[in-house]
Amino acid sequence: MRLGCCAGLERIETAQDAGFDYVEVHVSNVKAESPESEFEPIRERIQSYEIVPEVWLGLIPPDMKVVGPEVDSYRVERYVRTAFERIEELGAEVVVFGSGAGRRVPDGFSVDEAKDQIVEFLTLAGQVGGAYGITVAVEPLNYRETNMINTVQDGMEIVRRVDHPFVKLLVDLYHVQAQGASLSDIAVARGEIVHAHTADTDRLYPGSGSYPNREFIEALRAAEYDDRLSIECAWKDFDSECVKALEYLRGLI
Length: 253
What we know:
The chain is an alpha/beta fold. It is about 40% helix and about 15% strand. The chain has eight helices and eight strands, in the order βαβαβαβαβαβαβαβα.
């Protein structure tokens, strides 16, 4: 299993020096709705590091809706095509569809219609991503962050409906714990997981609390997943804590 961490641009070099295998950065960094001239310095900066951002999170911005009556399909498609083109240049292999605000079902809106919209969006993202060799990882988020796709089972329902080779599932230990779900639920995603996130108690760095990280890794492997695992947490002192977290997870692996 390869280890990475979610990091802002200002932390990439520190993550590289700590010894992570890759970094996971936010899609907003590539400015997909801005001219190429605004992307160019970001590209140069990221390409100056040896470590590669193989994974990107936050596929769509908070104000972009893919569910509800306000979906702007033309804006969504333009954004997705530009975003995938730019992240592919920087080494992307997986992009995470969390984006809880964009997929929240508005009050009074049909849940069935919302699911149809999610499937439509992910079909587009899978088609565009597939052209660049980038897989979309659907991330279940706990109920406090959104009201659509909250559990591993929910995620698998959507992934199966989309039925696209470049649309798979992400499993995040924090969200499993926040939902009060069982690690045994991960088994329903056997063979369909493409990425994973982890953290610890209070969403701090792995090794600082009591989350069952060892059991989580075992559950992922039992579900036929043994690839990338990113730390997504709140850091109090990134420079020191990222080293501790990396050592802790390496010990478990």
